[in-house]
């Protein structure tokens, strides 16, 4: 009897997982198939779109229009932001987990309220800090700004 309930729970988890994959994956598949279709056509998902898929749009975007540098720049900024957040967040999360329940709950509540601030309210102080550190107009400044607003 007990194993029967476990099997049902496992089957239910698989059904939910498959449903989530379909719900979140279908738009990505649609975008991928649409991006490989010829220019001046409406994206459609049918068997012909799979056979007519071409990477020439990607080649044109990166080679003909010279956008490879933009992709590299985005990669550097995203990697730097992720690394900075990990370097700061992991020790902070460990420290927060070692606090007593009262202090931990209070600090988490403060963090949640700070996340609710509109980003427009932080623009001027962030600009002043970046100007003070000499990071305006540079990739490191953008990485710090993005890490601070996430």
Question: Could you give a short description of this structure?
Answer:
The chain is mainly α. It has helices spanning 2-35, 47-51, 56-64, 68-98, 101-115, 123-133, 139-149.
Number of strands: 0
Largest sheet: none
Roughly what fraction of the amino acids lie in strands?
under 5%
Assign the structural class, choosing from mainly alpha, mainly beta, alpha/beta, alpha+beta, or little secondary structure: mainly alpha
- Outline: flat
Radius of gyration: 23 Å
The helix content is over 70%
Mean pLDDT: 85
Stretches where pLDDT falls below 50 for ≥5 residues?
none
Topology:
Layout: H1 2-35, H2 47-51, H3 56-64, H4 68-98, H5 101-115, H6 123-133, H7 139-149
Helix pairs in contact: 4-7
Keywords:
150 residues
Overview of the molecule:
By secondary structure, this protein is mostly helical. It has seven helices and no strands.
């Amino acid at each position: 009897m007990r194993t029967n309930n476990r099997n049902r729970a496992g089957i239910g988890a698989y059904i939910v997982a498959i449903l989530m994959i379909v719900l979140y994956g279908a738009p990505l598949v649609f975008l991928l198939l649409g991006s490989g279709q010829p220019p001046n056509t409406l994206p459609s998902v049918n068997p012909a779109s799979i056979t007519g898929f071409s990477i020439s749009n990607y080649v044109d975007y990166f080679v003909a229009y010279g956008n490879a540098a933009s992709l590299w720049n985005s990669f550097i900024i995203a990697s730097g932001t992720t690394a900075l957040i990990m370097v700061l967040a992991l020790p902070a999360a460990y420290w927060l987990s070692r606090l007593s329940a009262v202090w931990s709950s209070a600090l988490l509540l403060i963090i949640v309220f700070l996340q609710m601030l509109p980003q427009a309210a932080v623009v001027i102080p962030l600009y002043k800090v970046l100007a003070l550190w000499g990071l305006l107009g540079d990739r490191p400044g953008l990485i710090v700004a993005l890490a601070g607003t996430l």
